Amino acid sequence: MQSDVATIVLTAKQAREKWQSFSVEERCQFLQKLPELLQKNQEELARLIVTEMGKTITQAKEEVVDCIQDINDNITQAKKYLTERIIFEDEKNIGKIIFEPWGVAAVIAPWNYPLEMPIWGIIPNLLAGNTVVFKPSEYTPLCGQKLADLISQLNLPEGVFNIIVGGKDIGAQLVDSDIDYVWFTGSAKVGQEIYAKAGKKFIKATLELGGSSPAIVFSDVNVDSIINELYNARFSNCGQVCSALKRLFVHESIFTEVVEKLKNRIAQVKPQTDMGRLVSEKQLNLLEAQVQDAINKGAKVIIGGKRPENLSGPYYLPTLLTNIIKNMRVYQEEVFGPVLPIMPFDTKEEAIQLANDTIYGLTAIVYSQDKKLAEEVASKIKAGRIGVNTNHYFNSDCPFGGYKKSGMGREHGEFGWYELTQIKHIHLKK
Ligand code: NAD
Fold first, then answer.
1. Which of 127, 166, 319, 355 is within CB 3.0–4.6 Å of 339 for a Cys-Cys bond?
2. What whole-number distance in Å separates Cα of residue 19 and Cα of residue 130?
């Protein structure tokens, strides 16, 4: 298998020069039929997502639609951000910037959005002029292969796009191989390993990792107006979202009301049809161990806290936990499933301290009618993206990425494009 990885990377290496010789517009031309191909294959793609990863068919179809939008946005943005530009000029000199691809990009993806995470890596890399060796998650190889089949219909020059299927050993071999750049989305643990290897090889790595995102709810909030948003922030995709709400801090004056109303919202959920399942029994075992640890240390289960009866497969009931203390695993670790620990706070300072009391720093949400207060708190939370009175902040123009162990670098929008290339300054005498 080792030689397979080396051979594929060599193929990608040999294709570099040709792919880089195309202009950004020409690369966009190659890729512009992909949204239509996804559209035509929406049903099949969605079924593969459901089978391999367990989300509901409605959510799976939405993922395909989001991918179509992502690709169209990428094509528009590549033309805007990757074309040569003048950054300095006086009577005697002109300073130009050109964007030069790194070379072979390893794109290593997780399973939780088995189509969209690969697309976030593959498409910008190709448009930027990198050749790509893509490794899907071992949990979602068929989704990865189907995407590769669709990309193969674009008639890219040979070796520009490649797929290699396998588990963590293959991923490790890919990172060890003769690549020029690594674009990794996955856990902080693996991200750290990859970062160390990239450092040794002295190649660039963009790392999009896990999170334990907080939401802070101040006392002046109309609780009814945020319950659905809090529910979606934690429980969509069965809680398996990097940027999901994973620790909720509520002002003590409205704590009971928020817990009660979230409980009522959750009581309406039908696990199989509304939420889907966890990706695997292994993931469910980890989740159960985290919840059990909390219960052993005194946490109270408000609702859920177990598997649903009469459903086989890795399903888990949406769960609220209170009486949280800081040495519980649900407070300290990333919880990748439908479980929400909730804690009261008294002062603004305490809320900020709790929000930042994590090794992660991907996203956060702050709710308050006092916009000045909310913005001040947002500015003090150590995370790459903060929603103020909203959790609807995904937009391909806005950068996404983490502080601390949530990542290194940014994707999306202007700042994302600058990860994917060398920035070369050419200074010309007039
Ligand atoms: P993971 O780190 O276990 O695996 C991710 C990918 O890395 C898989 O393809 C896997 O085969 C590969 N891999 C595993 N070990 C490797 C190694 N030593 N060298 C190279 N490759 C290796 O993560 P996962 O369980 O697939 O995904 C869930 C994690 O991903 C969560 O922590 C989640 O928060 C995170 N995530 C982050 C983002 C983001 O944008 N920040 C998005 C989605 C998921």
1. 319
2. 7
pTM recorded for the entire structure? 0.97
The DSSP bridge pattern shows strands 245-251 and 204-208 to be unpaired
Atom of ligand 1 nearest to the CA of 194: 19
359, β-bridge pairs: none
Q: How far is CA 113 from CA 118, 120, 139, 140, 333, in A?
A: 8, 10, 11, 9, 21
pLDDT averaged over the chain? 97
Catalytically active residues, by annotation:
208, 242
Pocket of ligand 1 (CB under 6 A): 108-112, 117, 135, 137-138, 167-168, 171-172, 175, 185-187, 190, 193-194, 208-211, 242, 334, 336, 362, 407
pLDDT in tens, 69-110: 999 999 999 999 999 999 999 999 999 999 999 999 999 999
User: Residue 151: in which H helix or E strand, if any?
Assistant: helix 141-152
Write out pLDDT tens, residues 178-222.
Answer: 999 999 999 999 999 999 999 999 999 999 999 999 999 999 999
Is the pLDDT reported for residue 1 higher than 80?
no
Which residues sit opposite 363 in a β-bridge? 385
Task: Classify burial at 430, counting beta carbons within 10 Å of its beta carbon; exposed 0-12, middle 13-18, buried 19 or more.
Answer: exposed
CA–centroid distance, residue 183 to ligand 1 (Å):
11
The type of residue at 118 is P
Strands 181-185 and 407-408 turn out to be unpaired
Token pair of 27 as six digits: 């690369």
pLDDT at 108: 98
Which numbered atom of ligand 1 lies nearest the CA of 283? 25
Determine the Cα–Cα distance for residues 422 and 100; give it in Å rounded to an integer: 5
In sequence order, which residues have a C-beta less than 8 Å from that of residue 367 and are 6 or more positions away?
215, 216, 217, 218, 221, 226, 374, 389
Q: How far apart are CA 179 and CA 185, in angstroms?
A: 17
Residue 395 has pLDDT above 90, yes or no: no
Per-residue b or e along 39-72, where b marks 16 or more CB atoms closer than 10 Å to that residue's CB? eebbeebbebbbebbbbbeebbbebbebbbebbe
Beta strand extents in 102-233 (DSSP E only): 104-108, 131-135, 161-163, 181-185, 204-208, 213-217
Task: Give the ligand 1 atom nearest the CA of 138.
Answer: 11
Q: How far is the CA of 166 from the centre of ligand 1 (A)?
A: 13
Distance CA 29, CA 24 (A): 9
